[in-house]
Amino acid sequence: MSENTTNYKILVVEENYDDFLFIQKKIVKRLALSNVVRAQNMHQAWIEISNAPFDIVILDITGLALSAADAVSEIAKLSDISKIIVISSYANPLLENELFHLGIGDFILKKKITYRAIHKSLVHAVQRSRMLASIRETQKQYDDLFHLSPLPMWIYNVETLRFRNVNGAAERKYGYTRKEFKKMTIRDIRPKEDIRILEKALEFVRSHDRLFASGIYRHQKKNGEILTVELVSNIIYLDGTKHEFVLANDITEQLHYIKAIEEKNKTLQEIAFTQSHIVRPPLANMMGILHLIKDVDLTSADGQQLLEHFVSCSKELDRSIHEIVQKASRK
After folding, report:
1. pTM of the full predicted structure?
2. Which of 291, 293, 307, 314 is the most exposed place for a label (fewest CB within 10 A)?
């Protein structure tokens, strides 16, 4: 879009009407379709901004009853501070630095206002405001991912080991409030006997500038309960300081289920072994005796011996079956 067809809504806070006309003329020369509104004082400015949003607020601080910083702060309560362009009749480097530190879009001396200068300042302020809005939206999305995640997450300082931030899921899982977490270090959620394991892991983290890692560790809740957690972590830098972002997945119950399944499989293996090595021999003997009985007189000595052997095998089979039933019931 060309500069002459760009449509901005601009509020000019200017007590002097002639100065307002001067500024308006400079704006519409380059931005002909822009809607330029005048507020004679801070009270009118407050009303205008409350009623409708503006792309840019041009604030003349010359002769204001409020200090420049206070005037900017008042407008910033209703409008993004990066949209504010301050103009003044007097040069004041210290004040200029103070206002830029607050986050204003630009600072222009009245005597330096030209078509080109005002156009450049307006476009820069609008683009900067949109860029900052996009950054804030992205930051909000990441904050939402962090704080609304169902899995515990935290960020800690790699040197001090203190928690910098934790999400709600971490509070619920470990039983500490966010305020309590910020007074703690990551040592405080480890069982005492596992501190050596933690120190070894920290040596590895401290020796790398970039590191994506994962592992399974034991953690301890506020009530003393021990958890087995799978940690996924990544090194990040905040305010120039090395931190680690950590996501924790409680796998305690999962491991209990796996252990129970393994024990059940072991029982089934033992039963299978019993069936093939203990049950099968007496059953095979009984089948063999039944085959021989067809051709033997049961009243004879051989017949009586076969019957006694058959009874002995049946008792052995009964004992084996009883053992299998007892073993299955115990599990």
Report:
1. 0.55
2. 291
